[in-house]
């Protein structure tokens, strides 16, 4: 009964509510003029499909499975890519917090440092006027986790993945580091690895922050529309478009 309620409830809030409204318009138009009704039906079905976890998880999983986590760590530096931050928000030892993806990446880097003793380079700047500087926040949080200052490098200027790669390459060259272990979200790794390759670096990918489970199943809740699922679909499509643009350059 709980799952039935959850499924029905998904059509009360956006985007499910808008999908129902569009379906109603399709029925209304169908009785008057068929061609606009067919066009609207196709748009409605695309909107519905893109807002289901079944589609979102399938798309994101196809990206996440391209690079498995290595069993052994071989490198001389852990490079972590930012993924967004807030400014002025309260934290245990200051202000500003990393968003979910960036925080997961940072946690993975800290655990890898504990295992390997390798230095960490965090790459990411202040992307928007009201967002936090990712590398500066990451540095404070890494220090708060007990990682020595001598083992922390920051690149706090980059605004996108391409700049992550270019500016990081410059810092690594200055410190004579040549074997970076790249830590970023699993869905982001295919595009990030390409950007670092274009910047002249051969990285060891270490994906983290997985959004989809290893083995996907199909059940009723996977077919209910949600804003979160639509966001996952959009994230996957953005990555695929970015990869395509890189390969066409």
UniProtKB/TrEMBL annotation:
Gene3D superfamilies: HUPs (3.40.50.620). Residues 76-242 form the DUF218 domain. InterPro entries: Cell_Envelope_Assoc (IPR051599), DUF218 (IPR003848), Rossmann-like_a/b/a_fold (IPR014729). The chain crosses the membrane at residues 7-30. Keywords: Membrane, Transmembrane, Transmembrane helix. CDD domains: YdcF-like. The keyword NAD does not apply. This is Uncharacterized SAM-binding protein YcdF (DUF218 family). It comes from Paenibacillus brasilensis.
């Amino acid at each position: 009964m709980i799952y039935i309620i959850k499924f029905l409830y998904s059509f009360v809030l956006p985007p499910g509510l808008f999908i129902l409204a569009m379906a109603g318009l399709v029925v209304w138009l169908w009785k008057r003029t068929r061609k606009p009704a067919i066009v609207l039906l196709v748009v409605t079905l695309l909107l519905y499909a893109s807002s289901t976890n079944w589609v979102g998880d399938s798309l994101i999983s196809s990206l996440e499975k391209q690079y498995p986590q290595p069993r052994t760590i071989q490198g001389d530096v852990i490079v972590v890519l930012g993924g967004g931050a807030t400014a002025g928000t309260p934290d245990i030892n200051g202000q500003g917090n990393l968003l979910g993806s960036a925080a997961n990446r940072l946690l993975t880097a800290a655990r890898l440092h504990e295992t390997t003793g390798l230095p960490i380079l965090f790459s990411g700047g202040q992307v928007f006027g009201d967002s936090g500087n990712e590398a500066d926040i990451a540095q404070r949080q890494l220090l708060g986790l007990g990682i020595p200052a001598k083992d922390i490098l920051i690149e706090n200027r980059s605004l996108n993945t391409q700049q992550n790669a270019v500016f990081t390459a410059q810092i690594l060259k200055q410190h004579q580091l040549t074997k970076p272990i790249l830590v970023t979200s699993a869905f982001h790794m295919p595009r990030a690895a390409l950007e670092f390759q274009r910047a002249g670096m051969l990285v060891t990918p270490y994906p983290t922050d997985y959004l989809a489970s290893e083995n996907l199943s199909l059940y009723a809740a996977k077919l209910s529309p949600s804003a979160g699922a639509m966001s996952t679909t959009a994230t996957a499509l953005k990555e695929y478009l970015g990869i395509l643009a890189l390969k066409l350059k």
